[in-house]
Amino acid sequence: MESWRATLLPKASSNLAITGRYVLPPAIFGCLERTEAGAGGEIQLTDAMKILAREQGLWAYIYEGISYDAGEKLGFLKATVELALQNKEFGEAFRGYLKSLKL
Where are the domains of the chain? Predict the structure, then answer.
């Protein structure tokens, strides 16, 4: 695993994605003030992050593992099931329950 400094390109072809939480510098607020409203008339944080990336760069952490889109119903369900199976308290009981389902 490694950390790296990213530069956002206008149309970067990449297999990288943003997941989880952000830790952003105070400069993001100035970028938000200069960000035009997008979809639904809302100012999008990712648009402000593009400005910040061009002006100062961004830090990212690359990890190996599975990432689910918990903003989508199916991704949320997949993440919930996988985490439940890993749970030390009830993972084995949950696995047994899943095996008992008539699919």
Answer: 1-65, 68-103
